[in-house]
Description:
The protein has 314 residues and is an alpha+beta fold. It is built from 12 helices and 6 strands. Strands 2-1-6-5-4-3 form a 6-stranded mixed sheet, covered by helices on one side. GO terms for molecular function: DNA binding; sigma factor activity.
Amino acid sequence: MTRTEEVASRTAEFEELRPLLFSIAYRVLGSVTEAEDAVQETWLRYRTSATSPTSPKAFLSAVVTRIAIDVLRSARVRREEYVGPWVPEPLLTDPYQDPERSAELADSVSMAALLLLERLSPLERAVFVLREVFGFGFPEVAAAVGRSPAACRQLAVRARRHMDAGRPRFDADRREREELAERFFDAFREGDVDGLRELLAADVHMVGDAGGKAPQVASSFDGADDVARVLMAVFPMFARIGGVVEPHEVNGQPGAIFRRGDGRVLNTMALDIVDGRIQTIRTVINPDKLGHVGPVADGWEVLDEANGGRLPGA
């Protein structure tokens, strides 16, 4: 096989596995941008590798995992200095699908699950993702993280115990969740505070990730009355700029993309729905985390246009 033929063959193998590689990297990192960079670095290493692996899937999965672990270790230092709450970058569509593991894949990509994964060590997180989410055997996991199969079993047990203890209990019926989310966003568009409040759990939690780079009322609120009040305080400003609420699945859960009238992205919102009520609302406002969603609006410019530079209640 000529070098040109070999590169063409590797390119085809890599492109077939790209969705899997991205999905592994995203779950390890919680960042679309960093996951895409890890996948690209994996391709560069595969393209220039002097050896031809017996299993491209095992080889490439190991490479992207090692790269993601290294990136996560450095990212954790940066996150310690992050301004305000940190929320994973929103994922609108998971490119990897496996009917035999659809439940594991959907559960593991939720904002709640990714935030639980943040509490694990980088090695525990990588082992959990490879073993529990994607079903890799322990020999493959061991090769990917550079530990023995026995050590990986122990890492998996610790990670699973932690994840099971904190795992959220979402409503199972997808259609019911979508209908409740639709009612929620309709109530917001109409400025219906009572309709909004009745959809919220009494102890609902709302958190916003602006990273100090966009305006926000506050980083978090708790309780149905306060959350409804804050949302209704934002509504008049949103209406004045011709804002559009575009319902969209976010990290496998009901959510929406909020846009200016010109289509530029303001923020995303993901809803956790439990027992027929909205339990958690997570909003990503940080423009650095929204570039993959579409052209991003300047939040400060929008605030000036909507409210003379003043946040609600200021």
